[in-house]
Design goal:
- This protein is α+β, with helices and mostly antiparallel strands.
- About 25% of the residues lie in helices and about 30% in strands.
- A seven-stranded mixed β-sheet has the order 1-2-3-4-5-7-6, sandwiched between helices. Strands 8-9-10 form a three-stranded antiparallel β-sheet, with helices on one face.
């Protein structure tokens, strides 16, 4: 199924969204979206965002964001170079990100990641967060985040981080998931066509 998506198709999880048919191939992630995500949103412990097509309530992908803190000694040394020497620092946690198997391989994971990073950057301008931390649920997820220059944290297996930069530029052409992901972490430019 070829999709034509634009950013407004990602929004907060609502009761009207069809979560029951979602299957990313990971039972834990499926269960979270189907059973727990709305409760987390209502209790404000996580903010789930879902990707849908404009003409369907079916969830094609999702990510969750929340505020967190991290002990300074868990951060990679090169990330700590220009940071104050506090015991812990504020971060945004990208706790979950998954795409339905029916649309896998179409760049929707990258599309959701760009959305999560954009939202994190916007929030960090109001409520401080110096990095985005991800929790990779398996080796495949860890490889995905490493491709986008996330670095492993020193003490937590499966947790990776990247600095929130002042510039996160994305271009969402109408007929592609996205054309460019320009992501300024040590000037890494990843072009998708």
């Amino acid at each position: 199924m070829a999709l034509s998506l634009v950013p407004e198709h990602i929004g907060p999880l609502e009761k009207a969204h069809d979560r029951k048919s979602f299957d990313c191939g990971n039972d834990e992630m499926n269960h979270y979206l189907r059973v727990q995500a709305r409760q987390d949103a209502a209790k404000r412990v996580a903010a789930p965002f879902v990707l849908t097509q404009s003409d369907s309530p079916a969830v094609l992908g999702f990510h969750t964001l929340s505020s967190s803190i991290i002990p300074v000694d868990e951060l990679p040394p090169d990330l700590m170079k220009h940071l104050p020497r506090y015991g812990q620092l504020p971060v945004t946690l990208l706790g979950r990100l998954a795409v339905d198997r029916s649309v896998s391989g179409q760049g929707l994971g990258e599309f959701l990641l760009v959305d999560a990073l954009r939202r994190s950057l916007e929030a960090a301008q109001q409520i401080a967060a110096m990095a985005v931390i991800v929790e990779a649920k398996d080796q495949r997820a860890e490889s995905f985040y490493r491709h986008f220059d996330f670095q492993p944290l020193s003490k937590a297996r499966g947790r990776l981080s990247t600095e929130i930069q002042r510039r996160l530029i994305t271009d969402y052409p109408e007929n592609r998931v996205f054309e460019y992901l320009v992501y300024d972490v040590r000037r890494v430019y990843i072009q998708k066509s």
